[in-house]
Write a structure and sequence with these properties.
Six copies of one chain form a homohexamer.
Chain A: H1 12-25, H2 32-37, H3 41-55, H4 62-75, H5 79-91, H6 96-118
Helix pairs in contact in A: 1-3, 4-5, 4-6
Amino acid sequence: MTTLVEYADASPEVRAVFDDIMSTRKTDVVNNFWKALANHPATLRRTWESLKQIMAPGALDPLTKELIYLAVSATNQCPYCVASHSASARAKGMTEDMFGELLAVVGMANQTNALAAARQVPIDKQFQIPD
Amino acid sequence: MTTLVEYADASPEVRAVFDDIMSTRKTDVVNNFWKALANHPATLRRTWESLKQIMAPGALDPLTKELIYLAVSATNQCPYCVASHSASARAKGMTEDMFGELLAVVGMANQTNALAAARQVPIDKQFQIPD
Amino acid sequence: MTTLVEYADASPEVRAVFDDIMSTRKTDVVNNFWKALANHPATLRRTWESLKQIMAPGALDPLTKELIYLAVSATNQCPYCVASHSASARAKGMTEDMFGELLAVVGMANQTNALAAARQVPIDKQFQIPD
Amino acid sequence: MTTLVEYADASPEVRAVFDDIMSTRKTDVVNNFWKALANHPATLRRTWESLKQIMAPGALDPLTKELIYLAVSATNQCPYCVASHSASARAKGMTEDMFGELLAVVGMANQTNALAAARQVPIDKQFQIPD
Amino acid sequence: MTTLVEYADASPEVRAVFDDIMSTRKTDVVNNFWKALANHPATLRRTWESLKQIMAPGALDPLTKELIYLAVSATNQCPYCVASHSASARAKGMTEDMFGELLAVVGMANQTNALAAARQVPIDKQFQIPD
Amino acid sequence: MTTLVEYADASPEVRAVFDDIMSTRKTDVVNNFWKALANHPATLRRTWESLKQIMAPGALDPLTKELIYLAVSATNQCPYCVASHSASARAKGMTEDMFGELLAVVGMANQTNALAAARQVPIDKQFQIPD
């Protein structure tokens, strides 16, 4: 069973990551996901550092990135991830209509992925990787 | 083995869908996916009608929808779908940088989905659905 | 790289399984799947013995069992399994219409599975397991 | 968080779908899945219309279709879908023995799908799609 | 809804399997998984016999086998399986550090699996199966 | 379509990562996976740095880590990942018997994961996370 590491009980190494999470996100709450990862400080630090880089604004804006995160999480049937990333997406501006359309695309993609596999559809010449 | 139904050999019902695909997409090419679905005309029509509605501009723009489609297809390991939807995304404006960032998010989501499951992370109070 | 174990090169233990496969299926062909499993004879024997029991007629007929096998294989994006089990299903009587309807159900199930996850739908009282 | 849209609070468009669900299924209960989808009326209507067509009797009977739905839902680890579709399958005549055999096939398919991938089994000539 | 078959209510065939589980594992507890499978005695017996053979010491030691089981269960998002196999792995000697490293590998594998699919990476000559 | 970035055409940033891959692995070959990731240098560097840390000897030895990587890749049906990580595992000492036992566990885990989901097995008291 994984215990949640609370700030009060955390090592200095874990606290440094928790501090960065709270300061980057401008909040005083550390989610259970990070408290669980804190059982292995190297994974906590590496995962947080990667996530911070990846979710920062770039060629894609932060909301689009959250929508993509949510699409993957729903496809993988991850209840924790759907709960936390739909909250994040809403905080970054996802409206009910956007959520509805996101899910319509996610549902359709899961449907056609299975159809393409079942029909063993060969990749069209125009989509192929050249040798 | 699934055969691909070519326009020349298609029934009027199938041709009507193929015509709508080409006219909606302003192209004279029908992808193999649709030629394969044409073996079951009711599925061809229903899938195309749904896809046309879902991928149209709405609260989310068509490029964002393609990015989401691609995220799901990569997660599901569907080679045909990755090939066709990365082509569509590029046609709608996805740059190499956007593709790179999309994949970074998809990779990270697949990673943290597995970590959340393995750690059996309980959903935070603030993310829970109220009774 | 997995090599395929041919009958001529097989040990007596492997040949005994190959013989049973050919005699049970009334054919003189052993599929590549079994030739690949033959690299680990204990797995070959156990998998074949289980499969033979499971796919035999029972409360469900053999064709229904093949349809279910194909539904799982398409969902998992397994090209080998889709190819071999759609051939088996056709050999047991699956018509083009049955295949089309099977895929329509498989596609819809994959779609609604993702929607249920994304919406975090609570299980209805009437479906719940009593304590 | 997704709220469940109750009939009393639903728009006329949503009520029309709820009415059709109850009348088609000869029941006065609308499952939570549909109440959750009702947050996006276009998805509610499209999903219900598709499902109604797909699950109707055809080349496959309704029970066989439910078994296939359940096989996909178990493979995808969707708790809601397993709960609701095993209830539907029982209502349509699935006995305990049929359920047991269904699961045996689903389990075996998930096992051999992974084995085929891990062994990189090449598709047999007789199963290949001709060029 | 699946009921759990308790020893007191079990048939002689089921009791024989339960007895073997308890004697093999040197415990007087039968987990819910087996009580649930007992609704279909043939599946109970076949699954237990296979599991007993597969998880026994061999070229891989029992702890390594449990780590692999846990890796698959986390990837598949199976809450029951993660809970039971992380308990088994701890009982066989998995330390917190080993668990942390296991999860780091599982997370990275899930990440790079999606990246390889999305980039449609061709298999290197040196990894290919020869014709 | 993803192109493979060859060393001769690579930017200094990409070359630095390629050099580190070759020096760490004591080889003069860079696999296609890294050449494909090189289209997005930030992802190339981050993924390589994480992988190098994660796969290094620790509480688990490098071979055990490769076995786990392979188990996840087979479960996800990733052909590239299965091909490259089975080659790595063999290079680190995986024998044919070890590979056979690994696959037996992976197959069984995928089977019982589906059974646990389909039977909606409740988590045993002794496995539960305490509040």
